[in-house]
Amino acid sequence: MAAAKLMHAVQYENYGEGPSGLKHVEIPIPSPKKDEVLIKLEAASLNPADWKIQTGTLRPLVPRKFLFIPAYDVAGEIVEVGQGVKKFKKGDKVVADGGGLAEFATASEKLTVARHQEVSAAEGAGLPTCGLTAHQALTQAGEIELDGTGQLKSILITGASGGVGHFAVQLAKLANTHVTVTCGARNIEFVKRLGADEVLDYRTPDGEALRSPSSQKYDLVIHCAPVAIPWSVFEPNLNPHSKVIDITPSGSAFITFVRHTVTFSKKNLVPLIINAKGENLDYLLKLVKEGKLKTVINSKYSLSKAEDAWAKSMDGHATGKIIIEA
Q1: Contact yes or no for 222/156 (Cβ under 8 A)
Q2: CA–CA separation, 119 vs 124, rounded Å?
Q3: What are residue 77's DSSP bridge partners?
Q4: φ/ψ (deg, to 5) at 176
């Protein structure tokens, strides 16, 4: 029997330890199961959820077992298709939600999308988790029409220079919206270039209070900042029937959500539960192809330097996306 072909991968074997817990190993290349594709990776992107999983935040749901290869957002070329795969063939360039930090990864056909030649691997890999989160927060939870139709809405996006935030700003400006954002002082010009109409430095008194520079009240808030903000800060800035969509809800956010539900509150905090769909990822990739959406890349690392990328992500101050190239 021929020996299994090996690949370079990054994995960890227990919770905690941060970047030092990542180990470089040589393991067998996986085989695609039914309705899966095998992708030769060109790029992967890191998300805060990746290192939060390592800390044990989502135990016992993820990881289900150790050893664990982290990261999910990848781009590359299909080298093999599993039984039942109909949309793809060997040689297709794709973006997928369901990969890992390795030279090869398997992904479900449902969460794999063709990548246009105008979209680089790094741009594509940066889209799945953050792009889909921003899209779902705006269009499904927030009920915003991205074709520019509908009544003018005033939107606040916190943490606008981060992974989800920088996509949310761009997508919101495709709609009929006035967009106010929060960020640090060093990123004010950056978020203005993304399309923000008004910018609040979150370290200033007005920024801490979320007060619009033009005294607007918000119809919708997309809370992307990695810190909990009390409902008492949001509430005075909201119009009647407004929603605050929390993309990383804390325990107190769920308590607030339940309280609003049982009291039939007109102003609501809504924890966002992500439901990734391939058709939405395809829509985002088409926007990138057409120049209507941009994946802003903060930094790139080789797979051999995954620990450095991990540390950069954990630092929490990256503007845009952190990419690892295989």
Answers
A1: yes
A2: 6
A3: 40, 93
A4: -85, 85
From the list 57, 59, 66, 58, the residue with the least C-alpha distance to 22 is 66
Q: How far apart are CA 150 and CA 148, in angstroms?
A: 7
From 237, 234, 238, select the one nearest 246 (Cα to Cα).
234
61 close to 83: Cβ distance less than 8 angstroms? no
- What pTM did the predictor assign? 0.94
Closest by Cα among 199, 135, 120 to 168: 135
Contact 67, 11 (CB under 8 A): yes
On whether the CB atoms of residues 219 and 242 are closer than 8 A, the answer is yes
Q: Please give the single-letter amino acid code of residue 136.
A: Q
Concatenating the DSSP letter of every residue in 48-116 gives HHHHHHHHTTTTTTS-SSSSB----EEEEEEEEE-TT--S--TT-EEEEES--SBSEEEEEGGGEEE--
Rg (CA), the chain: 20
**Main-chain phi, psi angles of 230, to 5 degrees:** -60, 150
Cβ-Cβ contacts under 8 Å for 264 (sequence gap 6 or more): none
157 contacts 172 by C-beta, under 8 angstroms: yes
35: alpha, beta or left, given left = phi > 0 and alpha = psi -120 to 50?
Answer: left
Measured CA to CA in angstroms, residue 91 lies from 2, 6, 104 at distances of 25, 20, 14
pLDDT digits (tens, 9 = 90+) for 128-177: 999 999 999 999 999 999 999 889 999 999 999 999 999 999 999 999 99
Q: Given its phi and psi angles, is residue 62 left (phi above 0), alpha (psi -120 to 50 degrees) or beta? A: beta
